[in-house]
Design brief:
The structure is a single chain. The protein is α/β, with parallel strands linked by helices. It has two domains: about 180 residues, Zn-dependent exopeptidases (Aminopeptidase); about 80 residues, Roll (Ubiquitin-like (UB roll)). It is built from eight helices and 14 strands. It is elongated. The chain binds zinc ion (ZN). The site of zinc ion (ZN) has 5 residues, from loops.
């Protein structure tokens, strides 16, 4: 598990095609591959950022975005992991994911990631896939200087093409991919209800542990809760354990003891106006 408060996880998303190059098209349904790839990438960006992950896309609009430029941008960003998004075409069916063969230290992570993409697409859509593949001739896989995969979404001209007209299906793709990435890094996916949800937490102090509950919302990897206001009033700090999906409020003395713990949210670190507003202080 990473301490992504100190070393935020960085993900680069290559958005296939764009601008002069629409990629594959489905004229009957009015779909372009460039558009589908971008929508899924933007949904992934929002979801990953919600979990505190840093994200850069190769493009954010329908603009020219040559593979050479994507690779250069990705290498300049120096991510922990990169994924290139494409949508398959040519009259087949199913999802496929490609992993890197070289260098070997990337290949292992790439294959592990590919397995997670494959499994998550199967579970989220309830369908079989075309499996995990590799291809030495794909520039993305051979020139990106970070562990990476390349995904080919369901065929734009296949039996599931109509799904691309449904926002819920595009969201399902994004969620499947985000779950794959988070799972590799040992982070739990937290549902986005766009509203507060009830979280249970413990308050630890000299008197022992007390079980409590409060409304909270997850934004940029931090739980924003009235709990923080409550904690600050008591001069306490908040720890969020992604693995256990659990919040603990520490007294500062206890907190020093557990300094090595990851995901410790020091209330005094929340100094931006957004933090204060979200915490209900302003
Ligand atoms: Zn493509």
């Amino acid at each position: 598990m990473r301490n992504y408060n100190k070393h935020p996880l960085r993900i680069f998303i290559g958005v296939g095609h764009g601008g002069y190059d629409p990629g594959a098209v489905n004229k009957t349904l009015g779909l372009t591959e460039a558009g589908i790839n971008l929508t899924i990438a933007l949904l992934m960006e929002r979801d990953l950022k919600r979990h505190g992950v840093q994200v850069q896309l190769s493009r954010y609009t329908d603009e020219d975005d040559r593979l050479k430029e994507e690779i250069a941008e990705c290498n300049a960003y120096n991510p922990d992991f990169a994924v290139e998004i494409h949508t398959n075409a040519g009259g087949g069916t199913g999802f496929e994911v490609y992993y890197q063969l070289e260098p070997w230290e990337h290949s292992k992570l790439s294959l592990e990631m590919a397995k997670r993409f494959d499994t998550n697409v199967q579970t989220h859509f309830g369908v079989k896939t075309r499996g995990i593949k590799t291809n030495r001739n794909l520039g993305w896989l051979s020139q990106v200087q970070a562990p990476c995969v390349l995904v080919e979404n369901f065929f734009i001209d296949g039996e599931r093409a109509a799904w691309y007209a449904e926002p819920a299906q595009l969201k399902r793709f994004a969620k499947a991919y985000v779950c794959a990435i988070l799972d590799y890094y040992g982070m739990a996916y937290v549902a986005d209800n766009s509203s507060c949800q009830m979280v249970k937490y413990q308050v630890l102090d000299a008197n022992g542990a007390k079980e409590c509950a409060s409304r909270a919302v997850l934004i940029d990897g931090n739980w924003y809760v009235h709990l923080r206001q409550f904690s600050q009033n008591l001069g306490k700090d908040v720890h969020y354990d992604n693995g256990a999906n659990k919040i603990t409020v520490y007294s500062p003395e206890d907190y020093k003891v557990s300094e090595t713990g990851f995901g410790l949210l020091r209330i005094r670190d929340y100094e931006t106006r957004l933090d204060r507003v979200m915490a209900g202080i302003e």
